[in-house]
Design brief:
Largest sheet: 2 strands, antiparallel
Number of domains: 1
Radius of gyration: 22 Å
Shape: globular
Structural class: mainly alpha
Distance between the termini: 61 Å
Number of strands: 4
Order of helices and strands: HEHHHEHHEE
Length: 224
Amino acid sequence: MENASHPDGLSFAALISVGVLIFSATNVFAQMQDSLNTIWGVSIRPEVNIKVMLLSRVWSFGLILALGFLVVVLLFVDVIIALLQNTLGSQLNILETLHFYKLTSLGISFVLLTLILAVTFKVLPDVLIRWRDVWVGSFFTAILLSLSRYLIGFYLSSSNLGSAYGAAGSTIIFLFWLYLNIQLFLLGAEFTESFAREFGAAVKPSKYAVWLPGHEKEVPSERI
């Protein structure tokens, strides 16, 4: 608190923090892109220069901002719904009976989660895939992530996962939850890739990518 009261120190700390945040966030998206490319069986062309890679990193940062905006919208809508619940709940008892707040909040959260996953599956991999196939995969992944939220909550409430770690228990629980969601995200990406190849349109690498050995098979042209 004492150090935060000095403007110069705060500005320097803020500059370092923003730089680390941008570096970390873009690297997370770069790793996600590499994982999705592995699932789709493509890789960046060897002749692609550093300029293209930097543009890809800028694009990833733009995607971070867009998804962050969606999260802010979700929080804002959640607050509005809570205010409506507090204002109208006492006057309209039916809202309490139907759990208006919970159902509406869950519905909006699920829709935005599906949208975020669809954009991620569409934009990050270096493949050309149609939106129809992406929506199916993102809907499936959103169901998995939504179920995991309740299952992990039930598991943590009925177990002592973090008790053995003392003060670090919350960190262990967070890492456990993060690992679970990453696995479900990758499972959803695998489902999207399999669905697109079996029932979707022809899938091709982008102009910056090539097929990995053994992944050259495309969907027949009659299903394009």
